[in-house]
Amino acid sequence: MGPLRRTPAELDEARLVELTAKGDRGAFEELYRRTAPWLAVRLRRRCADEQIVAEVMQETYLAVWRAASAFAGSAVGGTAVGWLWTIAARRLVDAFRRRAHQAQLPGAIAASSPAGTVAPAAEDEVLAAGIEGEVGDALRRLAPELRDVLRSMVLDGLSVRETSVLLGVPEGTVKTRARRARRVMREMLS
């Protein structure tokens, strides 16, 4: 009798991705079962439009199925879930770009909500409701590009690299904006 085979439920996410690369549907299904709830919550923090979240989820897992062999231990800190988030963040940025492009077409009406209004992002609602007083006021007065970096890195807990991918700006720009945001916040709060 050979070595004991472990079921997909007993494997870590990195091994599940490796097995998915070999066409193991059970490993893929287990990876999805473990990571989809977490990924959906994380995407909803960045986008209040459920249709976009659903599309990004579908595109992400399709990309994982197709490109699992591209997973390398060094990607995004070496974790499979970090790799998965990087794929999802890129798909979300692509979805935002598609939405912006569609909105710029002549006579286009924003498809995400009635009468062309844009629903506030989930994090905007949390930021508005959850942070009160001077800190909340200071955050709301920050330039949008600085606020976006703080949201990604502080509220979402993303790394510089993940924030760079999500916002579509170079890592150096993310670092600069984070420093500037801290400096401006200190000035406003002193």
TrEMBL record:
The keyword Transcription applies. It comes from the Bacteria. InterPro entries: RNA_pol_sigma-70-like, RNA_pol_sigma-70_dom, RNA_pol_sigma70_r2, RNA_pol_sigma70_r4_t2, RNA_pol_sigma_r2, RNA_pol_sigma_r3/r4-like, WH-like_DNA-bd_sf. The chain crosses the membrane at residues 67-89. Keywords: Membrane, Sigma factor, Transcription, Transcription regulation, Transmembrane, Transmembrane helix. Residues 31-100 form the RNA polymerase sigma-70 region domain. Residues 134-183 form the RNA polymerase sigma factor 70 region 4 type domain. Belongs to the sigma-70 factor family. ECF subfamily. PANTHER family: RNA POLYMERASE ECF-TYPE SIGMA FACTO, RNA POLYMERASE SIGMA-70 FACTOR ECF SUBFAMILY. This is RNA polymerase sigma factor. It comes from Streptomyces hebeiensis.
